[in-house]
Design a protein that fits this description.
The complex is a heterodimer of chains A (about 210) and B (about 180). With about 210 residues, chain A is mainly α. Chain A has 8 helices and no strands. Chain A folds into 2 domains: about 120 residues, no CATH class; about 70 residues. The chains are: A mainly alpha (about 210), B mainly alpha (about 180).
Chain lengths: ~210, ~180
């Protein structure tokens, strides 16, 4: 599931993550004041060409826009009604261009590479109490918990469906949730038992 | 911060993700309104972890989404979500979880169900919609009234989710009293 979010390796995958992030930021900021639909159309065409250059994967990737379609229609419609058709088109085109550009970075950059780019700014946050080591532990735990919880939920759901034709009740979610919290507390005990030290290297009075 | 706290924060972040990936499992909602259980997870984060840690769990979830994991409802993820029209709702998850946790703490004397219901409505609906509406005004250049009308269709669904949150909180508290911060 999570591997699906990366495109097969291509020329953009080889560009350093920091460069891509900076380019994305510049592109998005530059797009904000643009009110000319022709410039936006050109940007969209260019983005479309890049997507098409990725072959079939690029085209299926465009499907990710589908969940946003109703909202885009509402936004475009409201704008078109109040300020004319062109204003509606401009706002939707600008949003779609920003989304597509950002997704280009996401699908050609691994999470590890992004974490590395973010490591220096995260270190700057250390005086505020952000511990980079704990951050990466937490991110890794989330990535690991998601498939585990999915499997556990599916098992519960199947067990329910095997016994009843009624829809899955909220009661089942409650049981699942309580069980997941117990799982978390057991994982924490396991971490402590294996000596994973989340305390900072320099000794500091314990804080509860 | 103890490992127990970090693991719980990570787990709740994962629960928020899982609830968003399983659309329509729980909520008996009128057909046609696209609702996922993702905000259910955000409300639970505040209730179970308290204001600070609840907000941290949501921040962690958003961080992982921005890193590219397709965990937002509808399988979205990556930096693109920052430019979507619903960005206000996404960022609003953080104050929503915080306020939910705060209300839960303040309502300690009430039974879990009642406290969780009030907290979920205050944080998960009032604060969440306020942020979402500001986001729509900024990104989609809508007026307050337009943004209110565009989002009003989701409010009945979210009221049901607040009810479901209260139910889940109450049931998990009974099954595992350590579930809710500051109650056991």
């Amino acid at each position: 599931m999570i591997a699906d979010s990366l495109a097969p390796p291509n020329w953009l995958s080889r560009v350093p993550a920091g460069v891509k992030l900076a380019a994305l930021a510049l592109f998005s900021v530059a797009l904000v004041p643009v009110d000319d639909w022709r410039i936006l159309a050109a940007a969209l065409l260019a983005l479309g060409a890049i997507y098409a250059g990725f072959g079939r994967y690029g085209l299926t990737r465009l499907k990710l826009l589908r969940p946003l379609l109703p909202l885009l229609v509402v936004i475009g419609g409201v704008q078109a009604l109040s300020q004319g058709f062109e204003a509606g088109a401009v706002i939707v085109m600008r949003l779609v261009a920003m989304l597509l550009a950002a997704d280009l970075v996401s699908m050609t950059t691994t999470m590890g590479a992004l974490m590395e780019v973010l490591a220096p700014p995260l270190r700057l946050l250390r005086p505020l109490g952000v511990n980079p080591r704990k951050m990466s532990l937490a991110v890794a735990l989330v990535m690991r918990f998601v498939p585990v919880l999915m499997t556990r939920w599916r098992a519960r759901e199947e067990a329910w469906k095997a016994r009843s034709s009624r829809r899955v009740p909220v009661r089942l979610v409650a049981a699942f949730f309580a069980e997941s919290l117990q799982l978390a507390d057991r994982v924490a005990e396991a971490l402590d038992a294996r000596g994973f030290d989340t305390a900072p290297v320099t000794p500091r009075p314990p804080r509860r | 911060m103890e490992s127990r706290t970090i693991v719980r924060i990570a787990l709740i972040a994962a629960v928020i993700a899982v609830l968003g990936l399983l659309p329509g499992v729980v909520l008996p909602i009128a057909a046609g309104v696209p609702v996922t259980a993702q905000t259910l997870g955000v409300m639970l984060a505040g209730i179970v972890l308290g204001p600070r840690h609840g907000a941290l769990a949501v921040l962690l979830f958003i961080f992982v989404v921005l890193l590219g994991a397709p965990l937002l409802s509808g399988g979205r993820g990556g930096l693109g979500v920052l430019f979507g029209p619903s960005v206000g709702f996404l960022i609003g998850f953080v104050p929503a979880a915080f306020v939910t946790g705060l209300l839960m703490q303040r309502l300690k004397h009430l039974p879990v169900f009642a406290a969780a219901l009030i907290a979920a409505i205050g944080g998960g609906i009032v604060v969440e919609y306020a942020c979402g509406i500001v986001g729509l005004m900024a990104v989609a250049r809508m007026s307050v009234v337009q943004a209110l009308i565009a989002t009003a269709v989701f409010i009945p669904g979210d009221l049901l989710k607040a009810l479901a949150t209260a139910f889940v909180a109450e049931a998990s508290f009974r099954a595992y009293p350590a579930a809710i911060a500051g109650r056991a």
